[in-house]
Structures are given as structure tokens and as C-alpha cells.
Amino acid sequence: MKSLLTATALAAATLLATPAALAQAWPDKPVKVVVGFAPGGAADQIARLVSTPLADALGQTVVVENRPGANGNVAGDAVAKSPADGYTLLLSSGGMVSVNPHLYSKMSFDPTKDLVPVASAARIAVYLMARNELKANNIQEFIALVKSQPGKLSYGSPGNGSSPHLAGEMFKSQAGLFAVHVPYRGAAPALNDLLGNQIDYLFDPGIGLQHARSGRLKLLAVGSSKRSPLFPNVPTLDEAGLKGFDADTVFGFYAPAGTPPAVITRLNTEINKILATPAVRERMVNLGGEALPLSPAEFGKRGMDDSKRFGAVIRERKITAD
């Protein structure tokens, strides 16, 4: 009996020590970050920006793998079905959690149950950009131009239900105009077609700002609640008369449900340290957003709030991905 009690006590002590031991032992092999969008887009750039210093902090290689498709669902499904051991993470826009359940009548996983928030990375604004050949030099002229040619102009997005797509639909609804939506498999292909005059405008998540600076594209407005520090003279759509317009989204890291809390805490701590460094904060601004360090709970709440906000737009515009 005494030996049984001793064995039970040792087992209990081992279980209690497991989280601390795990935090010290993890990671002992490379960590993979699966990005839900194509190379060159905002999600991809953020993943690579954070993953390099994260590898230094963890003492292990952090490999970035792009798996675009279905507005982040392809990558989300892959990570949700991965072992919950901290070695496979997801970097996605918050839309995968807050938007996709409103878009798809059936999903192969439940992002609110099969994934857990680890750390937010950045709040990304969207920028209304048009090709140079359009005869509109400010947002008021642009709205008038699109209204005068209903259905004749087109706008691109990284895909159905992406934050730039929802921004485009919000814009059409609040401005009372109509343009044709052209979905792409990522922000970079959409930007390339705008530069090639294949589409007329788009809500860019920041990767096209260099072309606004060089004069290759017209930057007409910011689809955020506040002006960008990079372009302080460019008005928000709210200032242009579309009151309450805010299409910002939060990009961040997720892990399979069941990942040990000690691992999530370690990742959140290291990522937040990285986001606080001046170099990363400056790079996030240059990407068109801002670093946004949050706790896992705060990140999760932001996703729930965005779900309510974007869900209303999706229902009003009758947007589906099926």
C-alpha cells in the first residue's frame, strides 16, 4: 500500500511539473509557421518579419510555409489538424476566424474551437488605390466617376471575404455605387493587375504603398478610423463622408487547440518582445499598419468583436464564398 501511495505521489508530482518542464524543453526542433496567403502579401511579410527574430529567441529554426486558398481556410485546416505540440503555427488575418464562418456554409474545421489565439502581430489598414489613368485626383472625384459609370469599373481583392473585399463592399454600400469585384489568390496578384491596368482600383493592405510613393498609383483615401502616419495628407473615408468606415483587420498567430498553455505563454511573450523593438515597429508602419502586442485573451476578444462588425456587412451585402 505504501509503495502504491508513493508511486501515486510521484506521478502527481510529475504531472504538476510537466508545464514547467515543457516550457524549458520546448522547442527542441524547428517550428513551422503556415501562412494562409500567397507570398508577397501582408500576411507573408509579417510572418517573415517576426519569424526571423523569433528563431533567435527560441534557439531553433522557424520555417515559413505559404498555403494560400479559401481566404485562409486551407492553411487553417492544415494547422487545426496538426499535432498540438507547439511546432506548427498559423499566421493569418483575423478574417479566418472572424469572417470565414459567416462566408462558408460548411467548413472542414471550426476556427473558434480547433484553433487558439497565440499572439496578435499587427493591425493592418487598407488603402484605396486607383490606376493613374483614371480621371480622378481625389476621393470625391473618384466617387463621382464610379457613380457615373455603374458596373463599368472593377476592383480587385485577395479573395472573397478578405478584409480588402469587405472594404470594397462597405465602400459600395456607403457611397451608393456599383463596381465589379475581381477576386485573386492573394494581395500581390491583385496589385500586379492594378499596376498592369487590368483592374481599376483596390483596397490595398499596405504592400502597394511603395507605388503610391513613386507615383505609379493614386492613393485616394485610407479605409481606417485614423489617418496613416506615412501619408498624413491623405484623408480617411470617414472624413470623406462615409461615417464610421473602418475596415482594419488584425493579423496574428494561432496554434492547434490543445497546445500546452506553457508553450502559448512562451510564444506570446517572445512575439510581444519582438513587436516592441523599434526596427519591427518601424517596419510594420512601412507595411501600412502598426505592431499590436496583445495577450492571447485580448487577441481572442478582438476576433470576436470583428466577427460582429464584419458579419453585419456580409449579411447586408449577401456575400458568400460557396
Write the layout of secondary structure elements.
Elements: H1 2-25, E1 31-35, H2 42-58, E2 62-66, H3 73-80, E3 88-93, H4 95-98, H5 100-103, H6 111-114, E4 115-124, E5 127-131, H7 139-148, E6 154-157, H8 163-175, E7 180-183, H9 187-195, E8 201-204, H10 209-214, E9 217-222, E10 249-256, H11 261-275, H12 278-286, E11 289-291, H13 296-317
Parallel strand pairs: 1-2, 1-3, 6-7, 6-8
Antiparallel strand pairs: 3-10, 4-10, 4-11, 5-8, 5-9
Helix pairs in contact: 1-11, 2-11, 8-13
Poorly predicted segments: 1-15
For the record, give the distance between the C-alpha atoms at the N and C termini, rounded to a whole number: 62 Å
Order of helices and strands: HEHEHEHHHEEHEHEHEHEEHHEH
CATH architecture of the largest domain: 3-Layer(aba) Sandwich
> CATH superfamily of the largest domain, called what?
Bordetella uptake gene, domain 1
How much strand content do the residues show? 15-25%
Into how many domains do the coordinates divide?
2
Mind describing the biggest β-sheet? 6 strands, mixed
Count of strand segments: 11
State the helical fraction. Answer: 40-55%
Count every helix, treating DSSP H or I runs of 4 or more residues as helices. 13
Which term fits the overall shape? globular
Mean pLDDT: 90
